[in-house]
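Example 9 (inverse folding). The structure is encoded as follows.
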């Protein structure tokens, strides 16, 4: 039986690759995508998700729009208008054809709650975006933590940040939501921080292999990842030149091939108040705190295996 999942996204380039992998892998059944305010405003996330699904022939997968802002703050720790003014995170739509399809009338949080209430089979929840929708579902349905059998989160960092020296974007974008999710007590919670995703880099050579496959998904993935490589070469300075992590897709990949990541169990909490550390995932790797381990944290990943998975998954049309 195929593994059922729901993907929570703020669809830019790496989310788009994750959406395509979840929609096309033969061992997965993507029940729906929920969108949330993140790298770009939520309405652009929704439009991008619809476009990507249509482009790969999976217009049957519904898209539910979620929260347009963090659950507590009126905006990110740094207001979006200041970030946009600096020339970053401009809300461009992805370079795939437009669609006439529209989001579902039901909101993302309502969809999550009702789907898990009615579920008769296990459904893995895979949030690869700010955790606003998940925290809202926990607040509205106290049983939500018990209804969700497994959560795989892409977010956080231990040794490196990407939006501040200590914080990764998804957690930083709504730190109060993230703190709620990690403290909720999910029975099976896995975290893929930047420490793991930066161990699974995709190169320009890999993009050429994807492009050569000729399918809509492979060519779109090559374009999205190629754009990421240009950005990362200019700003992130990867250990391997002309390469990039594709963070969110690795989270989906680990669902079908658990051997792609290596995890250890730790207590994870989120800093919500520190002026310099807000959004940091505090991973207690040396048992210095009082909290019990609540999360399986990945610190390593199989880059070659991840690329091979992308190539296999995108070789055939839907």
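The amino acid assigned to each position is listed next.
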């Amino acid at each position: 039986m195929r593994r059922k999942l729901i993907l929570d996204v703020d669809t830019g380039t790496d989310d788009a690759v994750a959406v395509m992998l979840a929609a096309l892998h033969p061992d997965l059944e993507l029940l729906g995508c929920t969108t949330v305010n993140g790298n770009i405003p939520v309405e652009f996330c929704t439009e991008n998700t619809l476009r990507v699904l249509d482009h790969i022939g999976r217009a049957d997968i519904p898209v539910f729009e979620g929260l347009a802002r963090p659950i507590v703050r009126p905006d990110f720790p740094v207001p979006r208008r200041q970030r946009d003014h600096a020339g970053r995170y401009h809300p461009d739509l992805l370079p795939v054809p437009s669609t006439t399809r529209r989001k579902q009338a039901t909101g993302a949080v309502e969809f999550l709650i009702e789907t898990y209430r009615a579920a008769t089979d296990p459904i893995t929840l895979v949030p690869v975006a700010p955790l606003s929708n998940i925290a809202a579902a926990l607040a509205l349905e106290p049983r939500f933590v018990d209804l969700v059998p497994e959560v795989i989160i892409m977010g956080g960092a231990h040794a490196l940040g990407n939006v501040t020296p200590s914080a990764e974007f998804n957690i930083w974008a709504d730190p109060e939501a993230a703190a709620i999710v990690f403290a909720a007590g999910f029975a099976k919670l896995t975290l893929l921080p930047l420490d793991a995703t930066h161990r699974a880099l995709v190169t320009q050579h890999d993009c050429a292999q994807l492009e050569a496959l000729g399918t809509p998904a492979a060519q779109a993935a090559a374009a999205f990842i190629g754009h990421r490589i240009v950005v990362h070469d200019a700003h992130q300075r990867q250990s391997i030149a002309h390469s990039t992590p594709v963070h969110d897709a690795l989270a989906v990949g680990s669902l079908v091939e658990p051997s792609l990541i290596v995890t250890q169990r730790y207590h994870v909490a989120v800093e919500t108040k520190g002026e310099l550390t807000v959004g940091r995932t505090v991973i207690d790797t040396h048992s210095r705190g009082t909290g019990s381990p609540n999360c399986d944290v990945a610190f390593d990943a199989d880059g070659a295996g991840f690329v091979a998975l992308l190539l296999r998954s995108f070789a055939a049309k839907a």
